[in-house]
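Q: Got a minute? One more chain.
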Amino acid sequence: MKTKVLYTWTAVYVSVLTMAGALTAPAEDTDTNAIAHKSYTGTVMFVDAKEHTLRLDGFFTSKTFNLGDNCAYTFADKGAGAIGDLRPGQRIEVVYQEMHNVLVADRVTQEPMSSEGTVTACDPVQRTITLHGRGRDKTFPIAGDCKVMLRGDKSGSLADIQTGNYVTVTYETPDDKPTARKITQTSETYTGSLTAIDLDTKTVKAKSLFDTKKFNLGDNCAIVIDGKINGRLSDLKPNDKLVFSYDEINGVNVASRIALVGRPQATETPQGSK
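A: Always. Here it is, folded:
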């Protein structure tokens, strides 16, 4: 009986010591996986690749982040990247963890900024492009390494961007100045002679050597005559040679640009002929 009681008290004593040890033992390192992730979006003010720091300017505040060793980087024009791809003017979302007011970034993702509109001017020498959209014009300086992308993901040049083209400009804002980093023009082209116009339905038909196409004019379709985009359908004449920029949607051709490139010469009747 005494032996059984002794064993019981020994077990209780060991249990108490174990609990006391657990309570007085030093705390283990904090599990970073348990720290909640937050996100912040802003414009890159500066990045220090050597010190692995990044500062963003948001709508109301600015924040500085430490870029973690395993931080993942994703960019609009190339997908996965590295810290060296960060530059002032990019709009960035940072997913981070915070410990004692120190912000550590786990993931950095670029959020592209873009503007769509009709090209009213494109100057390859001064490197500027002006778009008309939503009732106003907007001019962008063109970065030296700006990409021009055409239909089918083909690379182009500024010479491929014509007045009246409907394009998308992807830009960044270094020094708070929207600057074009990529210009995308994905419409197909068709050259033909005008055969019919329907002003009520805003449709046009044109024929080439091998076929005839019908085009529906979008609300923002530019009609370019003598380099100016303020032409009207009524300015076009039968047999005018036209170049159409259009997108085919489920069999329907939607024109965003019609440019007059040639007009048949009038045939003069010799004097005295009958």
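A: The first helix runs from residue 2 to 24.
Q: Perfect, thanks.
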